[in-house]
Amino acid sequence: MNRTQDLGKFIKLTGDRAKLDAKANGTYIVYKSSEGEFVKEYSNGEVERMNEQDLHLE
After folding, report:
1. Distance, CA of 34 to CA of 19 (rounded, Å)
2. How far is it, in rounded angstroms, from Cα 16 to Cα 39?
3. Mean pLDDT across the stretch 17-31?
4. Any residues with CB less than 8 A from the CB of 13 and at least 6 apart, and which?
């Protein structure tokens, strides 16, 4: 395998692990969708778009 394939595999495994952790802890993961929007994905499969206000920490 080359480095690009290795990196792609590592990224996928990291995402899979994040989903497992979210399910175990009753939380969600946040990522940027292919459309360029940030979304929350819950362990039940529900996906919620985030708006600009949700992105800022207080």
Report:
1. 18
2. 16
3. 94
4. none
